[in-house]
Amino acid sequence: MKIFVTGANGQLGHDVVEELQKRGHTAIGSDLTGDCPLDITDRAAVLRLLDEIKPDAVIHCAAWTAVDAAEDAENRDKVQAINGAGTRNIAEACRTLGCKMLYISTDYVFDGAGDAPWQPDCKAYAPLSVYGKTKLEGELAVSGLLEKYFIVRIAWVFGLHGNNFVRTMLRLGETHDTLRVVNDQIGTPTYTPDLSRLLADMIESDKYGYYHATNEGGYISWYDFACEIFRQAGKAVKVIPVSTAEYGLSKAARPMNSRLDKGKLAENGFTPLPDWRDALRRYLAQIG
Fold first, then answer.
1. Segments of the chain with pLDDT less than 50
2. Considering 131, 149, 210, 223, which one is annotated as catalytic?
3. 131 is catalytic
4. CATH number at residue 92
């Protein structure tokens, strides 16, 4: 298959391109810079480039993901242009070509209320942040324009090719004996090489629809994640659990309940991701 991947310079997009190439697909990675530059907010450029390439499928990883910066007044139009209108541009091109599209979305499309895991086909959208609202706009564009689509919501992403919570904890652990980490936001980490294998499995199929994808291993807090990071890394850092209110600092409201139900994966024949602890072990081994 010929597969076009947006956001190929990012943490997930890089791994998706690599996984597709391993499988023998023609993977064309695009980003603002690189061998195949594209600004997804430029509708004419999107339609023109995809018409030239004529992919069999598009995996749309490109997004504005700086959640707090998205709240700044000077950034809001740009965030909407990327996550909302930019995703619509990609979906329009896919509709014109009649090709599949896989869109990466987020737990932030929900309000994070309660403690029940969110179901993939739940439509009780109530995003709390600019980031969440614009990612939902992208979801609605994809589902409204296309029939052959996958919408995959992920959470708590970490990988080799970008900044993430694990890197942040390890960096802070070099200069701090004690760290305060929130313990009332609950979810599950997602390791990008594991996720990339699942996304490749999906795009090779025609089992379209909404899915949730994080690593297995149960639901945890950021505090739990931090404790396991330092345990596996052999670092003697004391982690103190605090509430989101006590922690403060964040401009954007975070979902307290980021539990994503992933049962639909196995139901449709997809292999769930490995345990997040195993993913963390592999990640730490790779970064040394």
1. none
2. 131
3. yes
4. 3.40.50.720
